[in-house]
Amino acid sequence: MTSIRATNLTKRYGRTAAVADLSFAVEPGRVTGFLGPNGAGKSTTMRMLLGLDRPSDGSALVDGKPYQEWKHPLRKVGALLDAKAVHGGRSARNHLLAIAQSNAIPARRVEEVLETVGLREVARRRIGGFSLGMSQRLGIAAALLGDPETVIFDEPVNGLDPDGILWIRTFMRGLAAEGRAVFVSSHLMSEMAQTADHLVVIGKGRLIADTSVREFIGRSSQGYVRVRSPRLPEVAELVRVGELHPDHLRVTAMTPLEIGTLAARAGLPLEELTFVQPSLEAAYMELTKDSLEFSA
Amino acid sequence: MIDIIRSEWTKIRSVRSTVWTLAITALLMVGLGALLSGSAASSAEGPIDPVSATRISLNGIMLASMATATLGVLVISSEYRTGGIRTTLMAVPRRLKLLAGKIIVFTAVALAVSMAASLASFLIGQAILDGAALGDPGTVRAVTGTGLYLTACGLFGLALGALIRHTPGAIVSAVALILVLPPLTNGLPGRWGQVVRDHFTSNAGMELPFPSDANQLGPWSGFGVYLAWIAVVLVVAAVLMRRRDA
Ligand SMILES: Nc1ncnc2c1ncn2[C@@H]1O[C@H](COP(=O)(O)OP(=O)(O)OP(=O)(O)O)[C@@H](O)[C@H]1O
Ligand SMILES: [Mg+2]
């Protein structure tokens, strides 16, 4: 029941590989977040999945077949890559109608998706004058035309205001709840944490993690225990594995109980003994720090 | 295929540049034809022979061909400019089918408008000049040939648009290949010079509406040669379109 499967997918531009030996799967009924820093190769991967760019190596299959081999691909996969990449001279309705006709989708469906994304009122307006939020909705309407089992969105919330972000997030959750496979890219972990069930993390075109969101947080937990004491140097001496900072000690290899017990035996007073859970963003930064294209 | 044709028809009819370029085609044909007929009528000493009269009334052909070529270019290049080509290719990933759909729809639209414009400029021109009638020998060929030539120029534009994917670049190439370079071949010396001149794009293509004594190709073989030029560019464009990333 896998809806998208990439196997050893590779894209080289000249000597550099934008995507290198990437394998992952997207399953129905959940939101799969495709995460990576700028330039990681997310858009390139999506273009290969959609038959727009030719892989240098490896394969990308939609329901077991390359995208190009589906007679009416929009009934399989709906995608929004770049909301502003449309001919501004057309009305929203004509834009959608042309797309629908190419896949033998009835014209009535155009009205339905316009209604779904809330653009019915402006259906006759030229789309060149649409705001980013409206363009985004139009792109989503186009993606939904064929009532596809799989949807692909490339950074759909980029540049949107909080209302727009919330709308899209809720919308994607809804699509997954209907049993569709939702594959959505982002370069923000915080964004994905609230939307995705599953994560495919890449950096410099390579797979870094393919895991559930919960597992990701757990596995990358560079959590530590923060210890404060009026006699901090002595505590540090005692614990030995800690990292001494001016006002506190940071211990990663011991639990608070172990540290507390040690201190109690030695009769050292403790002012603070806290386990610090890493934020998701921090976990993600930690994971991808080696694969940033441009480091500060 | 019928789905693709429907879709391309919706696209071509729903942008203003189509209406504009087609209106300009018709206007240039009819307007220039009437203008030149008028000035010929007032300066002529005696009656004008049918061949010259036909030619004068259809003299808008040179400029009108640039309008159809521009529309042909835009049919494809505007999708690359806006990035809409990706939406199109997601809907129709078979690129050759897409190209075929565009060619069919464009040819139908361009042919209808070009034929109508050609006939109208002939009729209006002759109303002013009173020099030729449709029954005169070669007149029907000149009128339909003008429509066919204008359509072919549009296809030349479309082929260049698909090859170059960049609007200004494709339009400049079309102007160069259809208008600027052909007369320059006049300077070529010798027998091979003559062959090149006779066969060079619009030198050959214009044989259909207006055969010249200097060109050794006949009307239809001349037009055939012009279509061969277009076909070659189309084939190269098609091969590249299949291979290139969108
Ligand atoms: N057509 C191309 N020619 C050459 N290099 C390219 C091309 N397209 C992408 N690249 C390079 O491939 C790498 C991956 O780009 P891609 O756009 O896929 O990244 P991304 O993860 O989508 O980034 P972002 O978050 O900025 O959108 C980048 O280094 C980019 O410069
Ligand atoms: Mg991107």
From TrEMBL, chain B:
<dbReference type="Pfam" id="PF12730">
    <property type="entry name" value="ABC2_membrane_4"/>
</dbReference>
<keyword id="KW-0472">Membrane</keyword>
<feature type="transmembrane region" description="Helical">
    <location>
        <begin position="99"/>
        <end position="124"/>
    </location>
</feature>
<protein>
    <submittedName>
        <fullName>ABC transporter permease</fullName>
    </submittedName>
</protein>
<feature type="transmembrane region" description="Helical">
    <location>
        <begin position="60"/>
        <end position="78"/>
    </location>
</feature>
<feature type="transmembrane region" description="Helical">
    <location>
        <begin position="170"/>
        <end position="188"/>
    </location>
</feature>
<feature type="transmembrane region" description="Helical">
    <location>
        <begin position="220"/>
        <end position="241"/>
    </location>
</feature>
<keyword id="KW-0812">Transmembrane</keyword>
<feature type="transmembrane region" description="Helical">
    <location>
        <begin position="144"/>
        <end position="163"/>
    </location>
</feature>
<keyword id="KW-1133">Transmembrane helix</keyword>
